[in-house]
Design a protein that fits this description.
It is built from 18 helices and eleven strands. With 386 residues, it is α/β, with parallel strands linked by helices. The strands form two sheets. The chain has a nine-stranded mixed sheet, sandwiched between helices.
């Protein structure tokens, strides 16, 4: 990639249960946007584009970005609203900068409204079969997990182990939601939701807000001595009518990371990445992601888990922030995990650390509202000091 885009600042609110936030979405968005601008001496007039990640279904109103874009600084500015995920928003911001139509872009979002997750995710099912049955995201997660068990030999205990390791990583994250290091035994004892998944193997809703500021290379070097460079990005979407085996192979995610690796010049991701942050809204997804990202062979994700290769001190740490097991914000989660990755690259995350990290991969998706096909995946490569 000839031109360079960097992240120069961020604003973040500690995530928690719904009752702990006590802010409307626009109020929370304003707070984190103001934090991000103040850190690098910018004001609203310096912004060229505002990008908002939000979904009406999780905001309780239609055209919810109408509230959030002014709060992020979009008065008389170009604004974009994207419902896929935070990383898709980063991609839009990068496109504005790389096309020379912007120098400074803010990407922001908030989660403050409590919704009925089962009801909301039932509404995105087809109206003839799954919808009338009451099918929702939990059932789709269970079916994908069953298919992965069939083709990999993974067990219920493996899924509990994957979740436990995320909880262990997230227990010291000062901005994370769940800070309890649940053991495998705790997780196996939690209520069954949709076999083979238990309650503690599905990320519960988290509430908070996050914002990041992107800048062109020239502006980035003026604003900070240590920008985090965005060196590769890719996105792709699964077939809506695909079968469960096709969906559990995460073909869209494979395509997205292939694009990102090519742009960043990565040939061997296992050796060239220092850590990975994956949107693991249900714990088996993380094992599927190991394979889709090319850090192990197909069907061998469970072996990576069992061998401890994705631990903090392993070959390639995964989810040092605690992942979506610990902080699962439907609108702002991708921006939140971007910030967590920046803090990890800067050795400034205040909790779990990855030694000498210089390059990482961040994954995001709209799979949080159900894995029924048509889900879109995005992959971002970030590097420090290059």
């Amino acid at each position: 990639m000839g031109k360079k885009v960097g992240i120069v600042s961020y604003g973040i609110m500690e995530y928690g249960d719904h009752g702990a936030i006590r802010k409307w979405a626009d109020e929370a968005t304003f707070i984190v946007a103001r934090q991000a601008l103040d850190k690098v001496g910018l004001n609203r007039d310096d912004l060229d584009v505002v990008v908002i990640s939000t979904m009406d279904a999780f905001d309780g109103i239609t055209i919810s970005n109408g509230l959030l874009v002014p709060a992020a600084g979009a008065y008389a500015k170009e604004s974009v609203r994207i419902e896929n995920s935070g990383i898709h928003c980063v991609m839009s911001g990068m496109a504005s900068i790389l096309s020379d139509s912007a120098d400074i872009v803010i990407v922001a979002s908030a989660d403050t409204v409590k919704t009925d997750f089962g009801y909301v995710t039932n509404s995105n099912q087809d109206q003839f079969f799954r919808g009338p049955l009451g099918f929702n995201a939990y059932q789709s997660y269970g079916l994908l997990s069953m298919d992965y068990m069939r083709r990999s030999g993974a067990t219920e205990n493996d899924f509990a182990l994957a979740a436990s390791r995320n909880y262990q990583n997230g227990k010291t994250n000062p901005f994370g939601h769940v800070k309890k290091a649940y053991s495998t035994e705790d997780i196996m004892a939690s209520p069954m939701v949709s076999w083979p998944l238990r309650e503690l193997e599905i990320g519960r809703p988290s509430y908070g807000a996050s914002a990041i500021i992107l800048a062109s290379e020239e502006k980035a070097k003026q604003l900070t001595d240590e920008p985090i460079w965005l060196t590769g990005i890719g996105a792709a979407t699964n077939n809506y009518s695909g079968n469960w085996s096709e969906l559990s192979e995460l073909r869209a995610m494979k395509k997205a990371c292939t694009k990102a690796y090519s742009m960043a010049g990565i040939k061997n991701p296992k050796d060239e990445l220092d850590f990975i942050e994956v949107l693991n809204v249900f714990s088996p997804f993380e094992l599927m992601a190991y394979e889709a990202l090319g850090i192990c062979k197909e069907g061998k994700g469970v072996n990576m888990l069992r061998d401890g290769k994705t631990l903090i001190d392993g070959d390639i740490p995964v989810n040092p922030s605690g992942g979506a097991m610990c902080t699962n914000a439907y609108n702002s989660g991708g921006i939140y995990r971007t910030i967590q990755s920046i803090k990890c690259l800067n050795n400034d995350n205040g909790g779990t650390k990855v030694k000498n990290a210089r390059r990482c991969l961040l994954h995001d998706s709209d799979i949080g509202i159900g894995a029924v096909g048509g889900d879109s995946h995005a992959v971002l490569i970030m590097e420090k000091g290059r």
